[in-house]
Structure formats: C-alpha cells, structure tokens
Amino acid sequence: MRTPKEVVVVFCIRRLAVGLGVIGACVGIFGSSSVSAQGLGGAGTLLGTVKDPTGGVMQAVMVRITNAVSGFTRTATTDAAGKFMFSNLPPNGYHVSVEAQGFKPLVSDVDVRTAVPITLDLTLTLEGTTSSISVVGHAEDLVERDPSAHTDLDQSLIGKLLVESSAGLNQVVTLASPGVVSDSNGFFHPVGDHAQTQFSIDNQPVTDQQSRLYSNQISQDAVQSMEIITGLAPAEYGDKTSLVVHIVTKSGLDQPKPTGSASFGYSSFGSPIAELNFGGGSHGVGNFLSLTGMRTDRFLDPPEFQALHDEGHQVSLFDRVDIRASDTGTFHLNVQAARSDFDVPNTLDAAALGQAQHQSVNTFNLAPGYSQVIGSKTLLTANAYVRRDHLTYVPSADPFADQPGTVSQDRSLTNFGFKADVAYTTGHHNFKVGGSVSATRLAENFGLGFTDPTFNSPCLDADGNPSENTALRSVRQCRGGLTLNPGFDPDLLAFDLTRSGSLFSYHQSATVKQQAGYLQDDIKAGDATFKLGVRLDHYDGLTTATQLQPRLGVSYAVLGSPTVFRASYGRTMETPYNEGLLLSSGVGAETLTGGTTTPPPPGKRDQVEFGIQQGIGRWLVADFGYFKKRTDNGYDFNVLFNTPIVFPVAWDHSNIDGFTGRVNLVQHGGVSAFLVLAHTNAIYFPPGVGGVLLTPPCDAPGCSFRIDHDQKFNSTTNLQYVFHKQTGAWAALNWRYDSGLVASSIGDVLDLLTLTPAQQAAAGVSCGNVVATPNAGITSCPPGSIASSRLVVPAAGTGDPLNNPARVAPRHLLDLGIGADNLLRTDRAKLRVRFSIVNLTNTEALYNFLSTFSGTHFVTPRAYQVQLGVSF
User: Fold this and answer.
1) pLDDT digits (tens, 9 = 90+) for 735-780
2) How many CA atoms lie within 13 A of 380 on its CB side?
3) pTM assigned to the model
4) pLDDT of residue 28
5) What are the counts of helices (DSSP H) followed by strands (DSSP E) for the chain?
6) In this structure, are residues 656 and 704 in contact, taking their beta carbons and an 8 Å threshold?
7) Do 629 and 606 touch, CB atoms closer than 8 A?
8) Hey, what long-range contacts does 306-310 have (CB within 8 A, 24 or more apart)?
9) What does the pLDDT read at residue 376?
C-alpha cells in the first residue's frame, strides 16, 4: 500500500503530459507538504537540509543561528532526513553556521524579514578541498538594510539589564532604545511624545497605556526578543505609532527536554520577589508559563526622596500554548492575568493631614491566533483578542485629608479585536496585505469634591491671595478690602465641600470602534531596499475620522562599504487616549464644566526620518538619525491634583524634532556594550481640548511652550563583561544621564518663594547659606541669592515657556550588577546568583516637579537587589 505522498507521485508522473497546469498543482502539493507550520505573524521560521558533497543527507549535525548585535543565538540538530528548523524567530538578519567532523565549517547569511517560512539547502565540503563560503566578522555583517530605524534586543541581553524590581518591560525599553526619555512610575516619552506607544505581543496590538499605574505588563522573562521601532512605523501598525515594541514571546514547541527557571530575590524597601518560568513540548504541542509575584514598600516613585505610604504588591501569570494542527497550520493562545494593589505615596504636607489613597489594577488578556502556510510562498495569519484593564482608585477616608480635593475613580477599558493578514514572498518582494477591526468599551465612574477653601474662592484678600472665608459664595460678597478673584468658576461652587457643596458624581460609558486595512511591500533592488505601504484607518469614537496614510521608506547600502543610508516619510493618524476620555471630553459632565461636549478628534501627523548606519571594524556598529514630526491635535495628559489620575488633552498642534543615536559593541573577548542617546525638541501650541481643571503653561494668543517631553540630551551606556565561561560569571554597569525635563509650573526663581516649606525642601531651595527644610521655608530672599539644587530655574523676569523654561536639574545615575549563571558548573540544573545596586552613588534627583502633566517624583535612592535561582 502506498503512502498518500506516493499516490501523489504516481498521479503526477502519469499526468505529466497533461500540461503546465497539472505540473503547477504538483509543485503546489509538494510545497505545502514540505513546509512546516509557522509561528504567529510577528515571528519567522527557517527550515533547511544539510547534505554532504554527494547530495546525501547528514543526520545529527549541529546547526547554529546567531545575530551578533542583538545577542540572539540558538542551535538545532538535523533529524534522520537531514532537516533542521528554527521557529519563533524575531525579524532580523542572521548567520547560519554548520560544523561537522571531517568537513569544512559552512556559514550562510539569511535575512528573516517575512513570516513566510524560509528554506535553506546547505551542502558541506570535505576538509582539504577548495570552496567559497561566507565569512563572519566583516563590518558589513553588522549593519541592516531595513529603512525603519529600530533596535533589536534578545533575552540574552534583556536578562542582564539592571532594572528595578517593580519596573518591568517599560524600563527595558527605556534603557535600551534611543529617543526614549524616562519618566516616573514606568512612564516614558517615546521620541518626543507621551504614551504614543504600541506593544505588538505575538501580533496582538496593545495601544493603551502600559505602566504600573494603569496596566499590568507581562514579565520580561516571558519575552524571547524585542524589536523597538523608533523610526517611521510600517503600514501594518496604526493607532499609536511614535514607538512600536514588537515582542516575540517564548514558546515551548520543539523542546522535548523542558527548560525553565525558578528564583527568589529580595531588595531594599522590603521587596521580596519570586519568579517561575517553564517551557516544553513536542513538535506538535508546546507550552510556556511564566509566574511572578512581588511586594515592596516603594511601589510608585514618590514625591519625596523618602517614600511615605508607598506599599504595593503585584502577581502576574502569562501562558502561551502552541498546537500544530497539521503540517502547515498552527494554533496559538496567549493568556495573561495579573493584579496589582498599591498605596499612593504622600508628600510631607499630605502625610501631616493623614492622606491615605489606594489604587488597584486588574488585567486580563486572552489572545487566540491561527497561522496557515499556503504553498511555499504564502502565509495566512489571524489573531483575535480581548483585553481588559479595571482600575479602582479609593481616596482617603477623611475627604479633607486630600487637598485641594477628594477624588474617586472606578474605570474599566475592555478591548475586543480581530486582525488578519496574508504574507506573500516571491523574488525580491515581501508583500503583506491585511486588516483589523476593534471595539473598546469604556466605563467611567468618577467622584470629585473640593476640600480647600482657597481653591475656588470668589474673592481675593488684601494680599491678593484667595480668601479662606468659607462664607463667601458669590463675587457680590467681595467688599471691605476683598476684590474679585478672576480665577473663580461659579460652576464649581456646587462641589466645594468647604462651602456646603456636595460631591460631583459621574457615571458614563461608550464604545470606541476602529477599522483599518493596509498593504505593504518590502522590495530588494540591488543595493537598495524599499518599504512601500499604505494604510486606511477609520475611527468611530466620540468623533469620527477617516484617513489614508502613505508610508514610504528607502535604504541604500554603499557597495563594498559597511555604510547604509536611509530615509522615510509617512502620514499617521494618532487616536485619542482612552483613559479618562469620556470625562475629559465633557460627555455628560456639563454640570462640572459648565459647557458642552468637546471631544478631541484624532491627530493627523506628517513624519520624516533620515539616518545612517555605519559598521566600524569587526565589532562596532553605529546608527544615527534625525526625525521631525508635525501633528495637528497633539496629545498629552494632565494630572489631577496630587493623584495618579490623568486625563487626555489635545493641543492645537505640535512640532517635534531631534536626533537619536545608538552604538553597539558586539561581544568580543567577553566584553559587549551599547550606548543610546537622543536630543528632543517638543513644542506644543494651545488651545487645548480636554483635560480636567487644566491650567495651560501658556494661554496668550499665538503662544507656544516646551512640554515635559522636551529634553536637551539623554543617554544610557551599558557595559557587560563575561569573565568566566564555565560559571557564566558576569558584571554589568549602567550609566544613565538625563539633562532634565521641563518643570512647567515654575516660571522663574521668584516662584520658588511661593512654594510650601515641604515643596521648597523637595526642590532643594536655598537663600545664600540658608537651606529650606520641611518645617522652615524661605518666604523672602534677594532674587540673585535664590537657588535650587534639584531644579534649573531662570533668573527673575527671564523665564519663558518656550525659550527659557525651568527644568529638572541634570542627573547621572549609576547601576552596578554582578552574577553567575552556572555557579556550580553543572550540565543540567544550573545555580544562578545575582547581586545589583541601583543608583550606586545614592543621587537625590527628580524625574519631574509640580508638573501639570506628571506631578512631582523622585528617582529611586540607592537600592540593593539579590537573587538566587535555578535554571534548567
């Protein structure tokens, strides 16, 4: 009895004379039967056969695939048919090497830029014969021809980055990618924007805010690799495109010997953390599981150097299931469930009042997907997903302990979506066409009451300050030395608890719908590479908009030189933030705003980027780029009082430009290093739409201001050294420099005298030799003698929100780590130990100060972290 394939062979031979149509069908059958099932659309697959000089297949031969810049390395062994396979590959260029006794080493280069499986036939040459093979180590091997500026990270680097115990993926992105400016509580400003970031996790788009304030991220231990796109995003990405973090998670497929790790760590601030990671499976079924849990007395970055009321804990589960339903079809399922509970840290002023605010965040994510190889050149990928973040914020039990207002919030954001695309590879083309539909259900419950009688007083006293007299409820009462307060809002009087008002209570829900279609083609034309695409987005939320978005990029590799030039232009639609969108738009809130609904529309952006990548010698590669973005309806948030609650704001337009840089030293003699750096101008133009109780940094006609994304210069230098191969002993050093974000609430040095003593102490204010303390402030001082050790403040009368804004003082932060990945030099279970010090010099520095957009937050003081674990 013949096998099914033998039947096909006989059929094809007998019908060979029928014509080319049947021949094509036969080729199609063989193509589909010889290509194994593929991973999710965000990852690639490399298949191949190793043969001897006679064409015979070679069994049990080791094949290795590597990328020197990202640090990626993996091995496979050929089976009885001489075949090997690498799946779940991040998009990148790779070296494939084969070594077998009696044969010359063979090295081949392959560029994995498509989800369609790639096939290689590798023929070894006997020792002593002459052959032409690729050589590793030339400078041109280090550069890439992708027109989109990006950074590639592998778990081998991610696992050794010195991140704080509660920081998560966001700090990995901040440390390792150029153009990303660090902010408090895991926030970062990507290439001049705030929160315009999309995480694509195994092809699932996640565009809502990802920080420990608003959502729970997967553990960095679950990440196999990250491609961080800081240039123009390809057409397949929409919604939030200033930064795209393309994540490929770990898989258990083809791991008959399970791998994993278990560890326990403890760090400063009473912070235990436990982690468990386990992956394994057959060729047909695989599973990877990651569990983490931690608690700490410093969960959020506090407004004082010493954390007050800052306890928090977090538990997280991530599970990935892969099932090869057939030789050409694969089913995937990602599941995430996580919860965090934490206090909102106090200022010294708030602690004296007994403030005790608390927040919890519950995250659930379910993302099934299916991929089907069609023939040998086509791949169909489909992903569905549902993701829900539920946030609850509880104010202090005593409303008057929260100044100047008491706030409560119970908000949920549920995102449903489906995404499908078809990738087709032929000749010099990698073509992809696809589309997506999504719906985001918003539910907002909010309460607000004012507890400070001066916050909305109708009258000013003789000194020009808002009167504390709670009997004053109308501007008609401004007599006897009292004058009209121009900032008084009669619509807010009903919610002034000091003047017999009641809480504002808000309950609204809505659904935001989006649809998109796109097509793109990566074309290799000699030394040039073109990335051409177009995307059509339709947004149907509180407003409606449709936009056609061309995305065009080109790179050119100088012949015979390790130099690649690139340029790109694109148009994008930046959609409104969903967090707090209904209230900030005035939906059902006329009693609070006194006006009508003014929803912010989507932003329209034009973006250009130019860059050069240069290989230097055999071990060094440098990348520099210039970007410029012009956006109508430029988005940001404003923070409400001293809470972690923020609301989206759409400014009239914004102009953002700057440069980014990255230098990588690939591992050589155990040493590897990278440097990332950036300069960003972020200028915004009022008026603004949205926000709650927003005070713009400037509101004069035609004015503009530098927003707190603006920073003159920032850089991160990471140095790693593996000094003992058998034990895997290593040491690492981080040096982070930030020139300082804009502090928009301070105009010049005279404004420092209006701060409370505790605020002056936080800013390091002094008058000559007299330094402000939390109990003794400075109320008067000659302008030339006022100084601040933690702020750079313009001299009296020279402050300007555009040309001379106040900034946080520059800071240098050093982190040091040492460890061993196989302390006992065992072959199976390996004992791992790590010790690190964050902020080695215990620098007292600020992320921001009284920012309209962020508030006040200090960087982490010196913290010690120790971890003991086992990997197998």
Assistant:
1) 999 999 999 899 999 999 999 999 999 999 999 999 999 999 999 9
2) 7
3) 0.89
4) 34
5) 8, 46
6) no
7) yes
8) 306/861, 307/269, 307/345, 308/345, 308/346, 308/347, 308/348, 308/351, 309/343, 309/344, 309/345, 309/346, 309/351, 309/355, 309/356, 310/342, 310/343, 310/345
9) 86
CA angle 542-547-553, nearest 5°? Answer: 135
N-term to C-term CA, the chain:
45
- The number of residues in the chain equals 872
Residue 519's alpha-carbon distances to 234, 355, 531, 546, in angstroms, are 10, 53, 11, 17
Position 26 scores a pLDDT of 30
The structure tokens listed for 758 are 């505790």
Side chain identity at 604, as an amino acid letter?
K
What is the Cα–Cα distance from 367 to 723, expressed in whole angstroms? 42
**What one-character DSSP code corresponds to residue 184?**
G
Strand, coil or helix: 716: strand
Residue 678 makes CB contacts below 8 A (sequence gap 6+) with 178, 179, 180, 181, 191, 658, 659, 660, 661, 711, 713, 714, 715
Distances (CA, A) of 33 to 36, 319, 452, 805: 8, 30, 74, 65
The one-character DSSP state at 547 is E
pLDDT at position 447: 96
Residue with tokens 């104010």: 395
DSSP-derived secondary structure for 444-486: EEEEEEE--TTTT-SEE-TTSSBP--TT--SGGG--TT-EE-T
Decide if 85 contacts 46 (C-beta within 8 A): yes
The angle subtended at Cα 753 by Cα 751 and Cα 757, nearest 5°, is: 125
The DSSP string of 310-374 is --EEEEEEEEEEEEE-SSSEEEEEEEEEEEEEEEEPPPHHHHHHT--EEEEEEEEEEEEEEEEEE
CB 554 within 8 A of CB 147: yes
pLDDT at 39: 57
Question: How big is the chain by its Cα radius of gyration, in Å?
Answer: 29
Asked if 169 contacts 223 with a C-beta cutoff of 8 angstroms, the reply is yes
d(CA 574, CA 195) in angstroms, rounded, equals 11
Q: Where are the beta strands (DSSP E) in 526-560?
A: 528-540, 544-557
Residue stretches of the chain with pLDDT short of 50: 1-36, 130-138
Query: Residue 663 has which token pair?
Result: 């230098």
